[in-house]
Design a protein that fits this description.
Blueprint: E1 5-15, H1 18-29, E2 32-37, E3 40-44, E4 54-58, E5 63-71, H2 74-86, E6 92-96, E7 100-106, E8 112-116, E9 148-156, H3 159-170, E10 173-179, E11 186-192, E12 200-204, E13 212-219, H4 223-235, E14 240-246, E15 252-258, E16 264-270, E17 282-284
Parallel strand pairs: 1-4, 5-8, 9-12, 10-17, 13-16
Antiparallel strand pairs: 1-5, 2-3, 3-4, 6-7, 7-8, 9-13, 10-11, 11-12, 14-15, 15-16
The structure holds fe (ii) ion (FE2).
The site of fe (ii) ion has 6 residues, from strand 9 and strand 13.
Length: 363
Amino acid sequence: MIHLLSHLSYVAITTPDVEASVEFYKTEVGLTEVARENGSVYLRCWGDYYAYSVVVVPGDEPAMETMAWRTSSPEALEEAVTRIEAAGVTGEWFDGYKIGRAYRFVGPFGHSMTLHWDVERHQAPGHVASIYPDRPERRSKVAGAPRQLDHVTIAASNVDEFAKWYNDVLGFRIMARTVLDEAPISVFSVLTTNEKSHDLGVVLDGSSRAGRINHYAFWVDTYEELLIAADTLMESGVAIEYGPSIHGIGEQTFLYYREPSSLRIELNTGGYRNYVPDWTPNTWKPSLGSSNFYKNGAMPMSMTESFPRPTARRRPRRACPRSSARRCSTPTPGTAEPRRPRPGAAAGGPGASAFPLRFKEEP
Ligand SMILES: [Fe+2]
């Protein structure tokens, strides 16, 4: 298989209060607003190479509308779509905002994924243009502002099946997984499209809702910047949910907090690079320090919360129309979802009933 995907290009999230979320991203996270289109707000980190990396979309509840990946070439985009449809999933082509012709589909566990090759590279306005040729814009003056978007971690009812599908169909390398000490149940796995330890994570979902997100993450260049971000968040009254500390898997330094919708975001830095093309995934246990390298602090139970919350009424998801990525979030009663290869594998499937109580989210 040719190398299909190059990296995560943007994440679109929904929020009931767009203005509150956007203000938070600008003042507390350090992103810059670049555009508004059909009610959605497009934001970027100072070091992102393309026009935007975060889209804040109006919605009833915090959720992920889609995660977008740039392919490795125009041919890779066509090949990826061929492979997706051969696996029994049908998406739709559409014209995306500043990404041109793109393909959006809903994977077997209900997650929307957008693939594209075309991009519009960021051109910084003169007052924020960098003096350095490689930088798309000068460094942010917000303390601890991330350089770029880093990864997304979703929730699925079967971690290993999720990883296998994205490995088989789109070539994500499976890097590691975590199996409970008490039972042979996979609760976490990390996958990557490149040399990073992961740009796609998956946590076990004990709810009956499909297509949920646990968090998405930004990258800061240094450990010191991450600590400064933690400091300024505390001074601003923003609670830090977990960290700063270091994950065993990936060895990144991490910091988790919530944006106003309650959606979890992460800052991370460090970690290893892995270029091995035929890597064999390692199996961790929580007792080995998979989430906490130092094994000196339990992950808070709140970290198992994913979005949208399981108690809210599910909004139907539909495939994307050709003319507008924004309208993909608008439910249309009676509109069929794209076909999925294994409907029985959706949330609530095998493994969910055996979900240990200490990892279980509310029903
Ligand atoms: Fe993460």
